[in-house]
Amino acid sequence: MKDTYRHKGLRKKLIDSLRRNGIRDENILAAMEAIPxxxxxxxxxxxxxxxxxxxxxxxxxxxxxxxxxAYQTNLLEVKKRDKIMEIGTGSGYQAxxxxxxxxxxxxxxxxxxxxxxxxxxxxxxxxGHIRHFFxxxxxxxxxFAPFDKILVTAGASSIPEELKRQLKIGGILVVPxxxxxxxRMYKITRISEDEYLEEKLDNFRFVPFLKGVKRVx
Length: 217
Ligand code: SAH
Hints:
CATH topology of the domain at 56-204: Rossmann fold
Oligomer: single chain
Bound molecules: S-adenosyl-L-homocysteine
């Protein structure tokens, strides 16, 4: 895997476009500029890696659009050492970004093949400290709860109540909620043991948050 001057140049342009589109957090932008997104796509699709678009990664899944990754990460208000659970490892790109921002990352994937390939890739890229779980993310990780932040990178049909319960008081859950065509981004902050503040933000389109796991045949 090579990260050439050309890749770096394309990445810089992508970051400039995210900045123009309203992403202001320079820590997030710098981390995105440092992570070679083309490593997370098949070699044949390298050219696509630096367009602000989602892209297929196999198994009917996608690596999220860079703007969406930056937007969700921004809502999480990531601080160094934050304990963050990500649902939907996919390519591993979002997990790498959270780790690059200094978070302690626990990531869950329901597709065994993606879980395996992301785990391998992230270890190779120096993110061996990210913890990977092959599970149904609807259940979260009760044995590791509570979390400072929880990020769902698939579109849910309703707010996942079990995940809310795995937040620390003061913790934030970011989850897109809606039907299969469009989801509204929700930022949910746990204010006390049983009170949550719900903010409904912009519309996006994610692959669906599905129940159960899918094993390699
Ligand atoms: N964060 C990813 C984008 C992933 S797309 C990245 O940076 O590339 C959404 C992912 O969520 C898919 O890989 C899909 O298989 C996974 N997913 C969907 N439902 C899930 C569930 N219940 N538990 C865990 N992962 C799930």
